[in-house]
Amino acid sequence: MIDFEDARERMVQQILRRGVDNPAVIDALRIVPREMFLSAGMERHAYEDAPLAIGEGQTISQPYIVAVMCAEARIRPEDRVLEVGTGSGYAAAVLGRLAKRVVTVERHPRLAEEAEERLRELGQDNVEVHVGDGSEGFPEAAPFDAILVAAGSPAVPDALKEQLAIGGRLVIPIGPENEQRLVRVTRTGVDAFQDDDLGGVRFVPLIGRQGWLPAVQDDGPAGLSRRIAAAAEPLPDVDDPSFGQCFDRWGDRRIVLLGEASHGTSEFYRARAAITRRLIERHGFTVVAVEADWPDAAAYNRYVQNRSPSLSESAFRRFPAWMWRNREVWTFVRWLRDRNRSIPPSAAAGVYGLDIYNMQASISAVLAYLDAVDPEAAEIARQRYGCLTPWQDEPAGYGRAVLTAGYRTCEKAVVEQCRDLLRRQFEEDGGEGLLDAAQNARLVASAERYYRIMYYGGAESWNLRDTHMFETLEQVLQAAGADAKAVVWAHNSHIGDARATGMGRARGEINIGQLCRQRFGDDAALIGFGTHEGEVAAATDWDGDMEIKRIRPSLDGSYESLMHGTGLERFLLDLSRHPVLREELHTPRLERFIGVIYRPESERSSHYMEASLAQQFDAFVWFDRTTPVQPLSADDPHQGVPETYPSGL
């Protein structure tokens, strides 16, 4: 059980240390329960000093920013205050503790309704919630002694200045999303205003008649493609040394997630490698976390960190071997090994697998570690894992058997084993070997449940898998140190916020991109990739041979067709720099997803899903025509069944 009062006090102390010491503001922050303003399941993050997503492309501002804006507005107990951008209602609740009357305006009806209900539960009857265009203020209740705007505007709206009382203060972010400054405007006379720059900030755009105008959508797909082309930043060839420089703008993030629209496209792999090289060399990233199994990625990790003389031939031999045993990955792995040789081991970057794969290898890794350090514990682990061994070579069969046999006892056994290793990790400094073994134990526990529940259908198996990947990422970051930064390589279906897709809206599925946004806020960058046509390495059936397949031109009305309509060969679309276009790209459209399986004959039903591109991603990388990855060996044996069945993404 979380002690919210204790967490709230720690948040307040952190804000005090950062220089906000207005007594009334601090008292209000101590009183208002921020956990009440978050959706179910998000409460545990309530007192982290970070913005958190609340839906509709909006966020609840980080506590420090709320405190700064309230303090800089210099609110007095007798003041009338206007807030533009109600959001979750948290800031309005804080303002209600500071002022006599608060009017707050929200343009999204759902958010306004939810905020009003939360404020009513708190008994704050001095706060009025209205739906409308906040850029035009709320003249019916003007003038106001203070106005706070929780969204960035291209300039200070005249309507808001006019609604200030003489002596009133307006606090508002000004400028494009990546260059915003927080400004305080004080009305010193009927037509006189004084501006004070309060520093750099980052807010969602203020959409409205006196903010960023809503996008015009009456000129059809061709017009939208022209607007995308105008906003697009042409990219050099993916092998050009300057390619990675275009992504320096995300070098200060904690996590940069790089997607792919298929598992078998050369340009996606080469682009991710170029971006990752740049982030490692210039921005201090040390974790490369990939949609792959932990034990096989660990073999790559030993090689890149120069703890193994050669790359293990046994790594990534299972279906789909081409996904990681390809020349594009091999080129990056060799580069990383060479770079790590030239720097201190403490600064070396590593490669880590996130996924629930290869249960057999994970069990073996746990037992090998325990055999070396604690043979008695190894024997106990063998007994616990014994009920899983019939399915180590065909783990999907475990799911079938558990429906009719008494194998549910395995769940308790593997969880006990996982807990034992985690307990060791906390009690002793076991170095990398212990981290590896603990993660393998965690993987076995998750995999046992995954194979059991995937035969029930529904969203549970997908959610378990992506939750496991996210938790693994958190564990790796924690082990790498408080300042560690990570690059994630995974399919668009994993790194694009699931809440903006049919998988989230219709099927209740979550993914690692959504979880990263909820946990890290603006400290995570989600970058998707796409293509119009070309060729891809993929299979027709599960465990089938790799084939080079022609990608059909994208369907009319899809996001891919809009990108193709720009006429540009390759480009970067940074949605944060174009808030008006981003608003237009909120509209759900078809988006293509190709996994390790590609069936062109049923492409519409097999590979397209409705999504909101602007809510999925912070940026999008486009290659109009693409080529397949080059497998290291065309006859790699495929052993067992694909353990991501039935999704293949």
TrEMBL record:
<dbReference type="Pfam" id="PF05139">
    <property type="entry name" value="Erythro_esteras"/>
</dbReference>
<keyword id="KW-0949">S-adenosyl-L-methionine</keyword>
<dbReference type="InterPro" id="IPR000682">
    <property type="entry name" value="PCMT"/>
</dbReference>
<keyword id="KW-0808">Transferase</keyword>
<dbReference type="InterPro" id="IPR007815">
    <property type="entry name" value="Emycin_Estase"/>
</dbReference>
<comment type="function">
    <text>Catalyzes the methyl esterification of L-isoaspartyl residues in peptides and proteins that result from spontaneous decomposition of normal L-aspartyl and L-asparaginyl residues. It plays a role in the repair and/or degradation of damaged proteins.</text>
</comment>
<keyword id="KW-0489">Methyltransferase</keyword>
<dbReference type="InterPro" id="IPR029063">
    <property type="entry name" value="SAM-dependent_MTases_sf"/>
</dbReference>
<comment type="similarity">
    <text>Belongs to the methyltransferase superfamily. L-isoaspartyl/D-aspartyl protein methyltransferase family.</text>
</comment>
<dbReference type="Pfam" id="PF01135">
    <property type="entry name" value="PCMT"/>
</dbReference>
<feature type="active site">
    <location>
        <position position="61"/>
    </location>
</feature>
<keyword id="KW-0963">Cytoplasm</keyword>
<protein>
    <recommendedName>
        <fullName>Protein-L-isoaspartate O-methyltransferase</fullName>
        <ecNumber>2.1.1.77</ecNumber>
    </recommendedName>
</protein>
<dbReference type="InterPro" id="IPR052036">
    <property type="entry name" value="Hydrolase/PRTase-associated"/>
</dbReference>
